[in-house]
Structure formats: C-alpha cells, structure tokens
Design a protein that fits this description.
It is built from 1 helix and 27 strands. The chain has about 375 residues and is mainly beta.
C-alpha cells in the first residue's frame, strides 16, 4: 500500500487540514456509522462489468468485477509495502483506455544508476509481458488512444513517453521550480497533444516550451477531472469547492461547497460526479476521514453513499454507470476495495489488503 497521502503537495495538505477542521465544526457530522457489505450481493439485471485488476502483497491480480476468481498475473515478493526487489504494485488507471493492456510497476531496477528507479511493466490480461522500461513515480498515465504511456524518468524533472514496444519516443524536460512540490504524476490532455502537472503546468509534445496556464483556464487548478467526452471538466478550486465547467472555462458552476477532496470521477454519460467529501473523523494513513458522495450535474442534488470514520476514496464508475469502485482505509490503517450502487445501495467488499484497483473499460468486454 502506498503511504503517500492523496495526491496533494505538503503545502496543500496543510491548507486542507484547516478547511477540514472548520467543516467538521460547522457540520457536526457523526462519523461512527459503519459500511456493512450486503450479505446477498447482486449486480441487477443486464449489468456488464469488466475485470478487476489490483496489486496485493507484491503481486498483481486480475479477477471478476466483484473480486471473485482472482488470478495472479505477476508474481512478486512482498516487502516495503509491495516494493521489495521483485514486488509489483499498481496505482491509478491500471487498465489502458481500450481495456487491452495493464500497466503496473515493479521494484528496483538494478540496472539503473538512479537510486530507487523502478520498472514499468505492460502486460495483457493473462500476464504475458508486452514490454518493460525504467520509470519513477506512482501512477502510470495512459494516452487516450492507449498507444503510449507517460512516466517520470527523473521525478519532477523529466518525463518519458514510451510506446507499447518499450521504445522511448520523447523526453520532456521541466524547468526547475515550474511544477508544484509534492507527489504528482503527469496526466494526458484529452486530445493527447500535451501533458499536465500541478499547478497548471502544460507540457506540449510538439516541442514548445512548458508553460503556466492562465488562471482562467480550469486546468490551472490543483486537480482536474475530464468528462468522458472531454468537453467538460470538474475541478477543486482554492476554496475546495467542486466546480464543473466547459474546458475553456466558460459555464463554470459550483456543484458542492466542499468536495473533490483528493478525488472525483465522472459517470460514463457525464450526468453525475462521484467525489470524496470530508467528514471530520479521524485521519488515517491515506488522509482525512472522508465519505463517498454523488452529485447530479444538472440539478446539484447530492447523495451520500457511505459514512463512517474511514477514508473513502472514489476510483471510478463502472462502464455501465450503475456502480462505483472505491477504496476504504479504516482507522487501523487497513485498506480494502469496495463497490456500491450509485444510489448508495448494495455495498460489496471486493478485496481486503489493498487500496488500489481498476475496473476494465467496457470496450474490452464486448
């Protein structure tokens, strides 16, 4: 389990802590409720979900969507939270957007001269190795067309773009001090023409120099989440409000006064956003206590899906939009993967011992 807290820098976490205390005092929420798995889980009629990929104890597994029938596709050695010499782990979008491949990390690459330099692995769902190459960082960013990945070659300094053949296609350099400090990874723009890192730094792939985006650009905020069609964005602003807008910044509208606390996810049809909301409970190893909520983009109606003193982090909607995958870290710092209906019913415990997982995109299940 990765020990870093959310994906904020240390300064942002300190500011967020002040806002969280104020929110807890204002709301007086009772965080004692527990999330109990449905003893008779059901997906409902006609539900189609892709496979679940996750890392556990230094291994990578692919299972049915509900965690059943797991198959180990990468056999590693646990150690250092799965980061031993031969351990594997996966964060963020493990599956490629087309659902054909998985990207995950291995332990120290002994051939690298950079201390702590890990290895990125690309495989098919059965574990057959497609390629591997060195790379630092945490999550592995897939390009929208599933043909390339972006990883740190040197954390915070240089980004490598690699093809599925393992050949490095580009090496992008960031000037010192341009990116915000903290544990951040580059992410792709929807058109695949550039990469983004906080705070509001765009790195074009066509050779133009990296630049700070203007404050009017929604991408200038700490965290930005694109709608599936790429026409809209959701972001958490400086007041930690969850805002939705067009990608050019127009039609901006506050959806939630305090939300998007380290994570948010659009539904496949773009009509809802699932997000993390602070509850004022005890902080865990993954950050302040949060619960999972869903907001209707058109009406602003918010539905609470979970409650309790744990840290709940949204991962993604299912391909059909009916269920949500999320992680939960309790006050004993034990993490697990869960899914729940988008209306808060039928919570299901999928895997215990890990907080990182990813559902396969629907295109690969058809």
């Amino acid at each position: 389990m990765n020990s870093r807290t959310w994906r904020y820098g240390l300064v942002a976490v300190a500011v967020a802590a002040v806002a969280l205390v104020g929110f807890a005092l204002l709301t007086g929420r009772d965080s004692g409720a527990q999330l109990t798995p449905n003893p008779t889980p059901s997906t409902g009629p006609g539900t189609t979900l892709g496979s679940l990929a996750y890392g556990l104890d230094g291994d990578i597994y692919v299972a049915a969507w509900d965690g059943s029938n797991p198959v180990r596709i990468a056999n590693g050695v646990a150690g250092g939270n799965g980061r031993g010499p031969a351990g594997y782990w996966g964060e963020g979008p493990i599956w490629s957007p087309d659902g054909r491949y998985l990207a995950f990390r291995g332990g120290i690459d002994q051939s690298s001269r950079v201390p702590g330099h890990g290895t990125v692995y690309i495989s098919d769902p059965k574990g057959h190795r497609v390629t591997s190459f060195p790379g630092e960082g945490w999550l592995i960013s897939w390009s929208p067309d599933s043909t390339r990945v972006a990883v740190w070659v040197r954390d915070g300094r240089t980004i490598g773009i690699y093809g599925l053949d393992g050949v490095r296609q580009k090496l992008l350099t960031l000037p010192r001090g341009l990116m915000a400090p903290g544990d951040f990874d580059p992410v792709w723009s929807p058109d695949g023409a550039s990469l983004l890192v906080p705070r509001g730094v765009e790195i074009p792939l066509d050779g133009r120099a990296p630049r700070h985006l203007p404050a009017s650009d929604p991408r200038s905020h700490w965290q930005v989440w694109y709608s599936p069609d790429g026409a809209r964005v959701a972001y958490s602003d400086v007041s930690f409000r969850l805002v939705a807008a067009a990608t050019d910044g127009s039609w901006a509208r506050v959806l939630v006064p305090i939300g998007g606390w380290g994570g948010a996810a659009w539904s496949p049809t773009g009509d809802r956003i699932a997000f993390n909301a602070p509850t004022g409970g005890e902080t865990t190893s993954m950050g302040p206590a949060t619960e999972l909520r869903v907001v209707d983009v058109a009406t602003g109606t918010v539905t609470s899906l979970t409650a309790g003193g744990a840290t709940d982090q949204v991962i993604k909607f299912s391909p059909d939009g009916d269920r949500i995958l999320f992680s939960r870290t309790n006050t004993n710092n034990v993490s697990s993967l869960w899914s729940i209906n988008a209306d808060g019913s039928d919570p299901q415990l999928l895997v215990t011992g890990t907080g990182w997982g990813d559902w396969q995109p629907l295109s690969a299940t058809r």
